[in-house]
Amino acid sequence: MFNLYNEVIAKKRGRRTAAINLSIQVALNHIAISTTGLQKLFLGSNIPAPSTSSMQHSANVVSEIIEEYNQKDLVQKRKLIKEINILRGDNPNIINIQADGMYNNPIYSGMGKTPFQPATQCTYNMLENNTYKHSIVSTRQVSKLCSNKSEHKTKTKVKSHKGHCSANIEMHDSIGSEERWAKDCLLDLKNDGLEVQEITTDPDSSAFRAAESLFKAENTAALLRECVKYRLGPTMLNRTCKNTNTQKAEATNRAIRATVPSNVTFTRNYKGRVHTAIHNVNNGPGESIVKLCKAAGVPIEPGSRAAEV
């Protein structure tokens, strides 16, 4: 029988997925529309909409592919920093960064209303300050929400139940611990042989404590204290001596907000959508879609109208 659509070669036994089902999920990850919103568009256009379960399955598959692909892309960005430093004649292992975190709900919005933290999902990004592009070089996604609600109860520990668990911190953990998330990002840089020389954060951030704790482990706490004192000194001159800012980090947060808006909670595929936004920022919207479609096994054909656009 001849199919009227292309299929993706399956890695497992079973029916092969239609290529358009995966490519449309790649596109959905770039915008705020969920599978439910896409169904409404189909129905409003008098087109039979696919089932919710099949669309969600495709979304789950694409989300994992995007997350894995973007992690590899971030590794390449870190390697590129080393190459640029070598061409400049600088120490190849030195990197200057800006860092910032964002939450699905403002972290202080529940003050005086509830004893619990209103935010349940967090993304923390680190961007390089070595080049004018300020590429994202490390990221962490944190979530208290699990899509498997029937198995994951309030007192259930993360990853301790059957099926997939999208939560990666306990419900009682402090999601506002930027020091903890920054430390994870700094370890990514350290594992790739990069040493942070300068870090620019918001005045209310505790990310510098993560750098301090890592430096203490290497017996350079005294030097770091002097650096922190110099950077966070009482005068405006000391606070702006390097003339760096977190504007690109804030811009990245806005790009992420376009894929995970505050009025929609993506429990299952939060990380995949954030990685899509990060890949979009690092590579540009057009190139990002082309690369992610190729990673999902549904490449856009060269010379087609979509490729020309």
From TrEMBL:
Pfam families xref list: Mutator (PF20700)
Extract the InterPro entries matched here.
Mutator_transp_dom
**Domain Mutator-like transposase spans what residues?**
3-213
Query: What protein name applies here?
Result: Mutator-like transposase domain-containing protein
